[in-house]
Amino acid sequence: MPEHSVPDLNDKSLLKHECYVNGEWIEAKSGKTFDVHDPASGKLIGSCPEMNKDDIENAIQVAAAAFPSFRKTTGRERSRMLRKWYQLMMDNAEDLAKLITWENGKPLADAKGEVTYAANFFEWFSEEAPRNYGDTIEASIPGNRVFTIKEPVGVCGLITPWNFPAAMITRKIGPALAAGCTVVAKSPGETPFTSLALAELAHRAGIPKGVVNFVTALQNTAEVGEAITSSPTVRKVSFTGSTGVGKLLMKQSADTLKKLSFELGGNAPFIVFDDADLDLAVTGAIACKFRSSGQTCVCANRIYVQKGIYDQFVNSFAEKVKGFKVGGGYEEGVTHGPLIHDRAINKVDAHIQDAQKKGGKVLVGGHKMTNLGPNFFEPTVIRDMTMDMQIASEETFGPVAGVFPFDTEKDVVEMANKAEVGLAGYFYSRDLQRVYRVAEALEVGMVGVNTGLISDPAAPFGGVKFSGFGREGSRYGIAEYQIVKMITLGGMSQPLGGS
What is the DSSP letter of 259? Predict the structure, then answer.
């Protein structure tokens, strides 16, 4: 097994092994910790506090104590805080990328892209913070004057996944702080060090004590989640993760009627019509399917290609995949890194075997790469996919591209919409009327037309059906952390007085 280098950080103080609560670095009250391993080599990175319910309740109370003063800061003050945090991220982008690659496994170039993407949420919401506009409403009753103001919802519990250790956190904290909320952010147990580095930069940015609190857990994740959802002090929960966990968190939040936004599982259709620019479609499918080795919620999971160009597309697509270089994320020229853990490897392997048993033909890949390390799998292309295969209905979350043939526009839209989830969908066509028809017919929250990359801080991100509800990013994102308060003034039609 090859050695995988440990990152040489320019600023070693960014590597934190404690949680950040009330502006201080603390251990779990129990003293317990959990270990984090490099998915490329399996080697130990370090340990983090295994926090439990008591630790979380303390962090919640800290955030609650900070809320009354923080909510009174002006939008311009909060803007400056976020802007400073953004700048510190950009100043330390190289170290942040090294941490992401170390604990997540994605190639360093991809990690650098994530850091920029993540920082841009702070920049975007620093610009939204001073622009909290209400409305003046024409009242139905003479003498009344009606207007609205927007207020922060309160203490927010944020629960994020491991696949984008920086961006999923900033996408939630950015709008929360812009709105005037305080937060308790639960970092993913697989990738906690990136979030703790962000906490250190928050401290340097001068974010007031108690406004942002970062907690970690692995074995106690369910206990921590329930502590957040059941607390009457927490008024908002934002979660990114699986549909199953989202349903559980929603049930747990019911008794306290929290405001919720959930970005849950995806099973994105990627459709190529026979009038598409074939080269553009192949390039888009490569970027969409294999970004982060297929470990993204919006990556293509079901690739549908019209029969007239099916063979041509599949052959060109497979040739591109043959050019990938798999290895440790720090290695020169590596395009794709390891999967996050053995459970991910096993799911990928099961989906490939299922497809082969039911008639699918593997053109590229299909095997574990144990010579590289414990969590490497060959990027895989399977042709002749059918709707009875597991990939047709289950999200793989790995480097497997199953390509389905289809006949008509009607057929493919029906197949695409058959999924319970509806996060993202993509299609390629040069027919303008078809573009409008299909974009409106797909039952998803986001559509990419002639592009495989749709994530942008300026664009609203979120799904429908079992992919959840609420939007992140864009001008809609801050509304998830606000309450609209209506104020009516009566007796306002008195005649003008003399003097």
Answer: E
Considering the domain boundaries, does residue 454 fall inside one? no
pLDDT tens sequence across 39-70: 999 999 999 999 999 999 999 999 999 999 99
**Beta-carbon contacts of residue 188 (< 8 Å; ≥ 6 apart):** 160, 161, 162, 165, 195
Any idea what the CATH number is for the domain that residue 439 is in?
3.40.309.10
The CB-side HSE value for 234 (13 A sphere, CA atoms) comes to 29
Q: Are 471 and 420 contained in the same domain?
A: no
pTM (2 d.p.): 0.96
- CA distances to 105, 302, 335, 345 from 321, in Å: 19, 16, 10, 19
> 87 and 21 in one domain?
yes
Per-residue pLDDT reduced to its tens digit, 241-292: 999 999 999 999 999 999 999 999 999 999 999 999 999 999 999 999 999 9
- Residues 433, 402, single domain; the answer is yes
Residue 24's SS3 state is strand
> Which residues make beta-bridge pairs with 239?
159, 262
Q: CATH number for the domain including 150?
A: 3.40.605.10
Answer whether residue 7 is part of any domain: no
The per-residue pLDDT for 498 is 65
Q: Tokens 């999923």 sit at which residue?
A: 168
| 77 Cβ neighbours under 8 A, 6+ residues apart | none
The owner of tokens 């049930």 is 251
Tell me: do 219 and 358 sit in the same domain: no
Domain containing 386 equals 268-449
Report how many domains make up the chain.
Answer: 2
Q: Catalytic residue numbers?
A: 263
